[in-house]
Protein: Trypsin-like peptidase domain-containing protein
Amino acid sequence: MSTENEGTAVPPAPSAPPVPVDAPASAPGAVPQGHAPSAGATGQAAGSTSPAGGAPSAPGAPQPEGAPTAQLPPVPPGHPGASPAAEAGWPPPPPATPAYTGGGGAGGAWGASYQDPAPKPKRGRGGLVAAVIVAALVAGGVGGGIGYQLARNDDSTGSTTVSAATSGGDVKHTTGSIANVAASALPSTVTIEAESTSGRGGTGTGFVFDTQGHIVTNNHVVADAVDGGKLTATFPNGKKYDAEIIGHAQGYDVAVIKLKNAPSDLKPLPLGDSDKVAVGDSTIAIGAPFGLSNTVTTGIISAKNRPVASSDGSATSRASYMNALQTDASINPGNSGGPLLDASGAVIGINSAIQSTNGGGLGGSGQSGSIGLGFAIPINQAKYVAQQLIKTGKPVYAKIGASVSLQDSTNGAKITDQGVGGSAAVESGGPADKAGLKPGDVITKLDNRVIDSGPTLIGEIWTHQPGDKVTVTYERDGKSHTVELTLGSRVGDS
Structure:
């Protein structure tokens, strides 16, 4: 199965809640400072560089067959250019098979292949606007229960009409209603447009992180503008600002940009505690699906701790790993980087990926859309990453110092016989080495979290910070062993 970045793939598997991390503006009950995500191992050094042992494939947790998932690609503003050749190095490249569809062999990267989304719709023109109008009429005509009154029509036809007791603008929304949450949060969200020097780019979403003008979004939203491209952020009131990239983390799929000449009245969104989120809690997603800015959708938390490996499927795409919050709130390409809110309006996640049934779809654009399976980076992890990026401009990843296979598996994460580029599979003097781990060992648990594959291990390690002590359960020669190790660190994506 693959997840699409607003983007690409999501494997389900048991997992332990991510370790809380610190961040600036926090909602009541927000996570205390000092805990954060960490980096992990891939078919390369666990929590370190590129895959070892051939083309990796996704974890083997049961998933619907033939249902690709992918990072939600940004919605292109124009005609994209050709993608350069893939590069070696870390983070590991997406597996060579469609992720989580239970197959092996060569194929697309972590699920559905990337396809260029359709150009942004022009306002006031075309079929899209007409469709929206029709939908509005239908919704307005069948909505019930607001005290409709039957009114008599005196014309000769003898027909009757139905009138609402009050007009929509007069309806009073209770505190905490979706309407009130949306009204409060929308002014603190932005539509981001990123364009490379060659003209390739797309549209995504972000939200105000602090009063200094920092905006948090996905790495894949701003990737096109990393090397000298153009970046802008537009608020719902129409005010548009140029922006610059402060830091970006490919492995975490988190980026921080900063508004140039930021206004003095910025209102950061409050940050919640994603560890305290429960399955069934209400969710509200804000974004710009298919370029339709300031769109609000609702749903619930469908699951927690979904191991997700996602990418946009392009030639240069590198996989991102997370223990995601799963939601059925409608999320589509363009929602990437937008906030996933709880019922109080606090941010609990960053919308990043969707599972789709195929790579085709809406309006013949070739861009897949929501089927009710969306995935968000837990805000506790994102807070830590964003703070690191603001502080140093570079991400910090935790690692165990061992290369693990990314091949499809349900038995655990196997330490490979050889590391990246012929290096040792177990880093000399690293955490795994000090704990006595060896090539061929199969890691089956990290603390209380069941590990079914290499990507699952990576996502779980990255919920920790370097220096955290973890308990590793592994199998060797048919026997189970348990050791404690202290996670190491690596700075940067390469």
Observations:
- The radius of gyration is 23 Å.
